[in-house]
Amino acid sequence: MPNSILDPLDYEIVRELQEDGRRAFREVARNLSVPEATVRTRVKRLQDQGILQILAFTNPSKLGQAKLALFFVSVAPQDHDRVVDTLGRWSEVSYLSTTLGSADVCVQVLCRDDESLWALQQKVRSLPGVEEVRVMQEVKVHKIRFTIPTVQSTEE
Amino acid sequence: MPNSILDPLDYEIVRELQEDGRRAFREVARNLSVPEATVRTRVKRLQDQGILQILAFTNPSKLGQAKLALFFVSVAPQDHDRVVDTLGRWSEVSYLSTTLGSADVCVQVLCRDDESLWALQQKVRSLPGVEEVRVMQEVKVHKIRFTIPTVQSTEE
Amino acid sequence: MPNSILDPLDYEIVRELQEDGRRAFREVARNLSVPEATVRTRVKRLQDQGILQILAFTNPSKLGQAKLALFFVSVAPQDHDRVVDTLGRWSEVSYLSTTLGSADVCVQVLCRDDESLWALQQKVRSLPGVEEVRVMQEVKVHKIRFTIPTVQSTEE
Amino acid sequence: MPNSILDPLDYEIVRELQEDGRRAFREVARNLSVPEATVRTRVKRLQDQGILQILAFTNPSKLGQAKLALFFVSVAPQDHDRVVDTLGRWSEVSYLSTTLGSADVCVQVLCRDDESLWALQQKVRSLPGVEEVRVMQEVKVHKIRFTIPTVQSTEE
Amino acid sequence: MPNSILDPLDYEIVRELQEDGRRAFREVARNLSVPEATVRTRVKRLQDQGILQILAFTNPSKLGQAKLALFFVSVAPQDHDRVVDTLGRWSEVSYLSTTLGSADVCVQVLCRDDESLWALQQKVRSLPGVEEVRVMQEVKVHKIRFTIPTVQSTEE
Amino acid sequence: MPNSILDPLDYEIVRELQEDGRRAFREVARNLSVPEATVRTRVKRLQDQGILQILAFTNPSKLGQAKLALFFVSVAPQDHDRVVDTLGRWSEVSYLSTTLGSADVCVQVLCRDDESLWALQQKVRSLPGVEEVRVMQEVKVHKIRFTIPTVQSTEE
Amino acid sequence: MPNSILDPLDYEIVRELQEDGRRAFREVARNLSVPEATVRTRVKRLQDQGILQILAFTNPSKLGQAKLALFFVSVAPQDHDRVVDTLGRWSEVSYLSTTLGSADVCVQVLCRDDESLWALQQKVRSLPGVEEVRVMQEVKVHKIRFTIPTVQSTEE
Amino acid sequence: MPNSILDPLDYEIVRELQEDGRRAFREVARNLSVPEATVRTRVKRLQDQGILQILAFTNPSKLGQAKLALFFVSVAPQDHDRVVDTLGRWSEVSYLSTTLGSADVCVQVLCRDDESLWALQQKVRSLPGVEEVRVMQEVKVHKIRFTIPTVQSTEE
């Protein structure tokens, strides 16, 4: 059992959905030999608790004009929460996390072109408390697939 | 129309799924006033072309022990494709992209604890062609939601 | 056709002038089998639109005392436009662009000697909004020749 | 007189062409009160000596798709001349100089899109003797105009 | 209970010794209302398991000539264990840990003077697998006292 | 004699305690052929002068949840003493020194988990005068043992 | 003739003194076949013009306790002259120059020990306009001898 | 007495010469009330021991063309002595020291112009064992005067 928040059945259900986010609950239920209602109830609970999200991801490398980039943002400590709150509401922001290391916040943005990327960077730098923004462009996305770490890692 | 690969209907369908990755095709069809079969066919085609993915994301900040981190990897040019290929097959890797800037490859990994994170970093550094690995830990994920950039950005 | 702003004939005319900026319009017209007046009109229009410039470049490596250097300038976002405007009016500035990455503005300057280079750097640093200036001296210019990118790159 | 290679008349002629690279020799001659043949001969000599070049520059900011970027390349000393020679023959390279400071060679390139920019960077990194390539994208060119430094700088 | 390896009594005993490393077992036993033999047995077990060490620390700031410095060492992954093993046997090394971030190994050394510090740095750099050594001198030690983190941190 | 503050007997006593911090004074006295009272008096004096400390160190690598990290803190000169004073009183701080080089203060902290480590970093950054905090996590402690440098180093 | 400020005889005299700063004027005169008074007058003039200095240098590597270090100081442009003026009056400062690159002022200092080096660094950082001070310690001086560059360098 | 190698009289003599490197021994002797022969003997001994040097320094800022620069050289440990030995024999090298920090060797060079500075940098980089050379140009020398640190610093 990988962690105390998910019980073994939660864990199996999540694994099924990580293989295919739209797998029918009926199929998940059959695969795990539990009633469909159980699957439905558990997924609902995990979503309500913010543990599980079912996301539609469009690969920018496959779309003509869309540009994907990472912003690494240094923020004064007292402004961290407000900056995160602001960035989280921008439609261009596809991913947002608090980091520990050479930056405080990692932001992934999806823009139309170089000029809107530059404008967005200027806009982030203008937020009160933002001290520095470093930009890293993403040329191609190769994989996006989340998997809960298991007790016995598959890496060995 | 934001780009030439998605036609306006494709675009509307993707938008519906970006709001809720498991929204029933029937509901999408009703919202867009098209037959359900059209939605189903188009989603199938976008998935087959690698443009659209429906993902289950479990938030590590909500799970007790899981550690999320970003590796920024510098790779010799002739080894780039092979390194990407290798990393893409590891179960700990949740996200993988080719970048332009201070690193060549951006890898997001999900591990059980500090020691497996360290072991994974050592493993990446041992891949032939890898010149440097910088690590940035992610303490909390605030947002994960992809949206196709529109012609009229909402940022103004 | 490399881009939608230049039509194929514009493109051919520009190519002729990129080979020799003073090539007679008569010769360009003959090479492309179009009337001389067409060439003249089109060049005039491209220049008026700011797309084409015919420049005289004197190679500092061939002149005794002249020093060429690049300044990489970090500017606060709200001061970007004003700094660009100011630098653009200085006679020592031979090239000026907005950049995305480890600096915000790239400035090429041409000075008489080390001391005026130093004085110029101090002057840039004193502009309101300028946060940092990094200097890179250019010892020798090997090539200066702009070519519009083609659809089929010559690099393969 | 700014330097010993150009005599005062050379200097005046260059100044005329820096105002307009295609100014007719007749007009230059009239402005400077010298015979047209003198202007023609002197310009020819300065071009033959590699001191003067008349260039056609197309502004990438005005062209839809073209991407302009600077590569800062570190090269092992024994490979410097060969790398410069190779880069100078590539059609994507619009500017090439030897620098003193945090890089050895500065290369400006003009590409069609992000993917060809990335491919070009990989190609530069693969040249024997190249140790590092840093990339800085140029979003907008504001000025390109070379002026010989005068004895009395206009900066005071 | 802060962690599962130490039970509450272990934890209390360690706390007593963290206040004074030479506190008599009799006094510890009296403070915690347990038999002295229990204290003795438990301390012995914790020492045997490598969990607890009683250290004599001499403050270099109080000694005339001794120099204290930190070395941050980058090591190739396949050489990590051997380098750690070698450094751990040197008498000048007072502290040695594996780190995650901008270095792989952190080494604290205690030398007689600048010249032996320099010689030691050269010696570390000469170890096979060592890629880089950065040095940070310590001018004055203000505190050295380890405390097990509690469930309710005192920091709030 | 390594330095003028410790006389040869002090030095021998310290050496005995560096081998085992709880070695009985009787045993030290016997090993050095001096009266036990002499050992006791001298150790007392060295401790009172702040030269010698007997420390209990619990190895975080052996404890489940405890996280050890180094903070490298840049502090404005006028705030140095106050910052050192504040940090020295925090229970999470296990080691604190003034450094010369790329930081001003080196702080070792011991926390329960990633989130309290991040909170502690934010707290340090919020102290008046603190300009920057860099974090380096320690994954495993291999050695902790202080030894006074001898006149004849054992390193040759 | 290497430069226009020194005539060939000045140049020969300086060369003689660069071999031995205390060489008697009589010996210099004899070596160069000119009257001693000429040598004396010329040396006096070069010293009065600040071109020539005869310095006594004591090698810190040969003296027990003295510590030599370089400070690289970043200074706000408007404070440069005042900072240089202040530093130039400090007795610990043995060398002071204005630099172009990653710092603005280079200062060599000679201190008694680590603690006075640290105090001096803090003192420099406290000067108004000083933005950053980086320290590099000098362990051993191998050569100190200035030679005017000749037209034909001896390096080929 | 500042250090044990110079006795108080040595120290006073050195101080006299640091004020004026060519001060007559007779004058030094009179100032210190000792026989001239004593001064002469002691200066001779200090010079023979490599403790004292009398140097002629020509200020490059006062000479038209001469360029002064600092090279910070990283050298593999096993090549350090040979590199120092080689650099010490070059006529362009005016100062050479072994450093501890972000470089291993600090070299001051005096060149005729930018091109010979660049050539010299390339030559240093080509020496076996040299890993990196960073260049810092010196625009103006403000002070050069060495003073032995006293017991009571004048800085307080």
Automatic annotation (TrEMBL), chains A, B, C, D, E, F, G, H:
Residues 6-66 form the HTH asnC-type domain. Pfam families: AsnC_trans_reg, HTH_AsnC-type. InterPro entries: ArsR-like_HTH (IPR011991), AsnC-type_HTH_dom (IPR000485), Dimeric_a/b-barrel (IPR011008), Tscrpt_reg_AsnC-like (IPR019888), Tscrpt_reg_AsnC/Lrp_C (IPR019887), WH-like_DNA-bd_sf (IPR036388), WH_DNA-bd_sf (IPR036390). The lineage of its organism: Bacteria, Pseudomonadati, Pseudomonadota, Gammaproteobacteria, Pseudomonadales. It comes from the Bacteria. Keywords: DNA-binding, Transcription, Transcription regulation. SUPFAM superfamilies: Dimeric alpha+beta barrel, Winged helix' DNA-binding domain. This is Putative AsnC family transcriptional regulator. It comes from Metapseudomonas resinovorans NBRC 106553. GO terms for cellular component: cytosol. One of its GO terms (molecular function) is sequence-specific DNA binding. GO terms for biological process: regulation of DNA-templated transcription; response to amino acid.
